[in-house]
Specification:
With 173 residues, this protein is of the alpha/beta class. It has 3 helices and 9 strands. The strands form 2 sheets. The chain has a 6-stranded mixed beta sheet, sandwiched between helices. A 3-stranded antiparallel beta sheet has the order 1-9-8.
């Protein structure tokens, strides 16, 4: 594996998050908003974004795992605590939005509680890889490369590079 190459600096990330937080504050002014971060990759994103939104927000983390089952893939959701989104707006935070399958499943699952709306915010949106009809309402960055990204909460095996303040590409080897 080669050395990480900076794709987005910590300053670029902060600047884009500040811009998006202002837009979210305008879009959801006067409404109850719940940020739902998909673990582990969205942990840094949720923490930084929540601090930048001046309106009050609630937040939750969900861990989504996919395993093989008798009839195909099985998606499992695990919440850190009970989440109640009835009558609230929900913004799902994802590190890198690829196929959209996981996010679509989560939206379907949360819709059973009758939220006012659900939308997705991606740190990095890769719409060219989408296999379901899903669009991110907010994208910090749109990136059409297939590089493996690390830093800013994203890491390799054993957490390598996860705590870098910038977002970097590394060669897949």
């Amino acid at each position: 594996m080669g050395e990480p190459r900076i794709t987005y600096t910590a300053e670029q990330i902060r600047q884009r998050l500040t811009e998006i937080a202002a837009q979210i504050a305008d879009d959801y002014r006067g409404h109850k908003l719940v940020l739902v971060g998909i673990l582990k990759g969205a942990a840094f994103l949720l923490a930084d974004l929540a601090r930048l939104i001046p309106n009050g927000v609630a937040f939750e983390f969900v861990d989504v795992t996919i395993s093989a089952g008798d009839r195909g893939e099985v998606v499992n959701l695990t919440y850190a605590t009970h989440i109640d989104v009835k009558g609230r707006h929900v913004l799902i935070l994802k590190d890198v939005l690829h196929s959209g399958v996981t996010e679509n499943y989560l939206i379907t699952h949360l819709s059973q509680q009758r939220p006012l709306s659900t939308a997705v915010l991606a740190l990095v949106d890769r719409p060219h890889l989408r296999s379901v009809n899903l669009t991110a309402k907010y994208s910090v960055f749109t990136n059409s490369s297939d590089d493996y990204l690390v830093g800013y909460g994203l890491g390799m095996e054993w957490g390598q590079f996860v705590n870098r303040p910038d977002l970097c590409a590394v060669d897949r080897e």
